[in-house]
Amino acid sequence: MPHPKSSVEPASSADEASVIINAMAFDLPRYLRERAVLIEHHLAISVPESDGPTGRLIEAMRYSLMAGGKRLRPILALAACEAVGGPTEAALGYACALEMIHTYSLVHDDLPCMDDDDLRRGRPTNHKVFGEAIAVLAGDGLLTDAFGLLVGSTQSAGIPAQVIIDTIAELAHACGSAGMVGGQVLDLLAEGQPLTQQELEHLHSKKTGALFVASVCGGARLGGAGSAQLQLLRDYAAALGLAFQITDDLLDVEQATEHLGKRSHKDLQRGKATYPSVIGIERSRALAHELAQHACQALAGFDSRAEALRMLAGFAVERNL
Ligand code: GRG
Q: Which residues constitute the domain of residue 263?
């Protein structure tokens, strides 16, 4: 498979014109739908049903994995690959691995020893259906198999070994103690404590932001991005991740459980500091929009192939789910 090398070029006025035309023509709902179908098809193949001795484990993994959700992290990975001119197949396995890791974090986050939730993605949580032991193992299975899928799929796609190694290293860093798991610990320790805005941002940059950055940068790296492009995409993803989290905090306050498919108003109930509780609802909304704009500015040197990424920054803050 070709693995194009490209660099960031300053946008010409012709590029700018084509970006505007593209933005007008871009059908985001359709793009999201089509990408979700592609990802779900590939997820179903990647974690196939099994009636063997571990059938119950696989059933639990698939129960949460195939329960819907926005599929935003894998969609970002594919959009980032596309933005640097890479072929979708280069990042498809990686995209699915991201969704498996995200799903593992949700299954574990819902456990009684963590957030103790009964509802996720509109269904009873994993441990409510399969019991705690199987839910823990289903999460472990999703996390570990994600790395297996990443290696297998990128090798089959002919990605250079060093690019695969760099992608694995960045993903492991984003998920582990320096990233998502570390952020979860900060979150647990902060329950009932007042936080400053800076402390809240630090917590979320790890808990939520790190996986967004890995989604975008990994997808772009597999698509052939150079280091200048990766740096800009890192800025894009960090701003987008924070904007997404602020919007999540706002939705938790403003939407009902039945609408979200997960328990709402839970941050307040658990005594968690959130953007609305620290800086107020209006400032939170304004900050989320500023961050989405900042994310788009980081893409200024990219051509019209980055249109999906631009639209996704808007989606992250305008969504109602
Ligand atoms: C390692 C146990 C463990 C947890 C890591 C990510 C995480 C920390 C916990 C999940 C709970 C949570 C509310 C995290 C904040 C990030 C977030 C808003 C997750 C929900 O993501 P969406 O909205 O969910 O993309 P869907 O269902 O659409 O995929």
A: 19-318
